[in-house]
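ARCHIVE RECORD
Type: protein–small molecule complex
Small molecule: EPU
Source of inputs: curated submission
Record status: active
Notes field left blank by submitter.
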Amino acid sequence: MVHYISAMQDRLLQLLPEAKTNVPLAPYTTFHIGGPARYFFIARQKEDLVHAVEAAKKLHIPLFILGGGSNVLVSDKGFNGLVVKIEIQGIDWKQQKDENVRVCVCAGEQWDHVVALSIEKNLFGVENLSGIPGTMGAAPVQNIGAYGAELKDTLDEVEVFNKKTTQFEKLSADACKFHYRESIFKKKEGESLIISEVSLLLKTNGQFRVQYKDIDRYLSDHQIKNLSLSMLRNIILEIRQRKFPDLREVGTAGSFFKNPILRKKEFQKLIAKFPEMPFYELDQDRVKVPVAWILDRICRLKGKTKGSVGAYERQPLVLINTGNATANEVKEFAYEIIRNVKEKTGISIESEVQLVGKF
Ligand code: EPU
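STRUCTURE (tokenized, with ligand):
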């Protein structure tokens, strides 16, 4: 067995000389949780990605692609395969004939850096998504969204490396099958696709999206009439700061659960029981309900802790690691919440955070 492992290690290191072995993943996640990666490799160029995929294929070991580690819960046992951290850099701004701008961003760029640059250039489209942690390559996976905007509203095209065909391919926004916190990249049909670059279409003349309750209230409280892109960014950063813990101080992966989308019938039963509950009608038959409200007002979970895991005091949808929480503790805490919500409301909620490795 020992011989077998070291032979495998030798082959992997031959194929990927810069790979490291037995690398703790906790420092690479915003939860600060997770055991070791058997192999760990940083992709700085698109070709590195190709080599990593080839190596994993040759050795028949599983591959996991890591971005900023801000939406994952890595098992305490770590990942028994090759973890590839994407650090491919590059941003290219292309003026279009219609005066709009297409920006092509490599997967390893920080999302919020792209937002800040877009606003410096006075381009509309991503300002409401200010302050979201993580990389460009991770953004389409869950179709990041906040304050009335989603990535899909500005996304033009995604370049992927297809593990099956071993080719780089382009996917239109339609082909990505975006929905609320959903995309092809989370589904079986997209499991062979690794995002290498994303193109966004930004507008030189856009409209501010300020209907979201928190923004609307801020504007009226501060009597703001003439808004600019940088003002809106600062307002959103301020609102976020009030609700989310500082990632430098507290371990977290942001919202842990998705807001459930209910059919009208199920929703009507719920609203009859809890008439004060806020809700968002998506279309004639579907209504999205806020888990944060349920966790706060029905389950009374705000600020509740168990060991080193807790529901954040200002936003209970955000689970936090207050010290040395293990992945198992977080998972157990989350499961308890899922059961609690089911018992009190009849609704099934799902994790938004991706679980990595064996639990
Ligand atoms: N609420 C409470 N009590 C609380 C917190 C919130 O009653 O302690 C109520 C609010 O009053 C509001 C509702 O719950 O009516 C929703 O709260 P909020 O506006 O804070 O948004 P959310 O649905 O909890 C979503 C995203 C966040 C995003 C915010 C802002 C999901 C799963 N989460 O949260 O995204 O920043 O909206 O747009 O959709 C993330 O995905 O990691 C994330 C942080």
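CURATOR ANNOTATION: Residues 146-147, 214, 243, 254-255, 258-259, 278, 290, 292-293, 296-297, 302, 315-317, 352 surround EPU (CB under 6 Å).
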